[in-house]
Amino acid sequence: MKSLLITITIIFSLIVSTGLSAAATELPKQLNISYVQHRAVMNVYQPLIAKAYEKLGIKVHFTKVDIERSLALLNNGELDGDVLRAGIVTSKNSNLIAVEPSLNQMEVVLYCRYSLPCNKEAMQSTHYILGLVGSLKQHHQFLHDAKIRITSFVDYQQMKQLFELGRLDYMININDLNTPYNHAIKISHKSLKLFQLNGYHLIHKKWASILPQLSQAIIEAKQEILSTQTLPSSPQQIGMENGQKQSTI
């Protein structure tokens, strides 16, 4: 009798354990993913992420949200993920997970009107206006002691247009080094490369259980999507293909 009870207990424990394991890895039916209005994101990485979730049978609702606000909403759990962000943001936002593999390399660049100095010291002048997408704190490494007047945007294209019209003296832009989908600047200008970052798809930690399946789906989707793109052979070629007139210092 005792051995029978032990056997029943073991079987019951296995059933419960299996049930809990299945529940822990159950995939969500739909997720709300934010994105920023950048040509590379909309032409390459948003379709890539959509395809990855499609492979898992998960419906995705994409919501256009500005960079700063989307980070706060994602960290608070009001959004489930973001299409593409620099992986470094997870170091200061403990609720965020950067999903492997990296999707791209991004280059943060200071663009300057051709007649103006193009260096960090120029950021100390109150006579000039700098455009950036997001907020000052996102570029703290470069602008932590800046005195330049700053105008924030939610749209890279709008910022570029105002730079071309002469209403901005400088702007900080992000170029994607893996695709030709960057914003071509149609006036003569100078540029200063600030630093490079790796970009990842981000999810809230409440979805950590789907990481293995999601990572594999992204690997497959990345191979399928990027294999159809005509990729530049070098970062410099990106500018040439976009018709940019620039000098890099």
- Please give the count of helices: 7
Give a short account of the largest sheet. 9 strands, mixed
Radius of gyration over C-alpha positions, nearest whole angstrom: 23 Å
Low-confidence stretches: 4-24, 231-249
Q: Return the structural class.
A: alpha/beta
Mean pLDDT: 84
- Strand element count: 9
Name the beta content range.
25-35%
Gap from first CA to last CA:
84 Å
* Helix content range: 25-40%
Name the helix and strand elements from N-terminus to C-terminus, one letter apiece.
Answer: HEHEHEEEHEHEEHHE
The coarse overall form would be: elongated
Note down, in words, how this protein is organized:
The protein is of the alpha/beta class and 249 residues long. Strands 1, 2, 3, 4, 5, 6, 7, 8 and 9 form a nine-stranded mixed β-sheet that branches. Helix 2 crosses helix 6. The radius of gyration is 23 Å and the shape is elongated. The C terminus is likely disordered.
